[in-house]
Amino acid sequence: MEKVSMSEGTARFTFSAACGLSVFAAGAAIILRLRAIQGPAILFLIVAFLACLVTLMSYRRYKLLRSVRWQSELKRTEDEMGQVLNHARMGIIMEHVTGPLNNGNGDTAPENPKKTTSKEE
């Protein structure tokens, strides 16, 4: 027996179609029952029940496929974010070890920032 693979879009479409079919069949069963037509009403009620089962199964499949896609997308973006953060961490570590290379204006940092040039008397 071959296993049929289903894409996320196909599962979502199947879910929507089965949901619509179940609502239509349930409505038809109610209308036929109100008009006292028993045979077709029971048939539509069975179709509505089966469509509800298909809706449940296709929603579970869609949810599974969606979670797999989200996990792969999150892993890729987390890897990219990790690379950015690793570069930032390395820059902070290098600045801490070597000291700041400039003070933000393009000038070099002073040799001793605590040293003052004015005389206090």
Mean pLDDT: 79
Please report which band the strand proportion falls in: under 5%, 5-15%, 15-25%, 25-35%, 35-45% or over 45%: under 5%
Shape: rod-shaped
- What is the percent of helical residues? over 70%
Largest sheet: none
List the uncertain runs. Answer: none
SSE arrangement, N to C: HH
Provide a count of the helices: 2
User: How many whole angstroms does the radius of gyration measure?
Assistant: 34 Å
Quick one: how many beta strands?
0
- N→C terminal distance: 97 Å
Query: What structural category do the secondary elements indicate?
Result: mainly alpha
Summarize the structure.
This protein is an all-alpha fold.
Structural account:
The protein is an all-alpha fold and 121 residues long. Helix content is 73%, strand content 0%. It contains two helices and no strands. The protein is rod-shaped. The model has no long low-confidence stretch (mean pLDDT 79).
Strand-helix topology:
Blueprint: H1 8-34, H2 38-98
Helix pairs in contact: 1-2
Write a concise keyword list for the protein shown above:
single chain, 121 residues, mainly alpha, 2 helices, rod-shaped
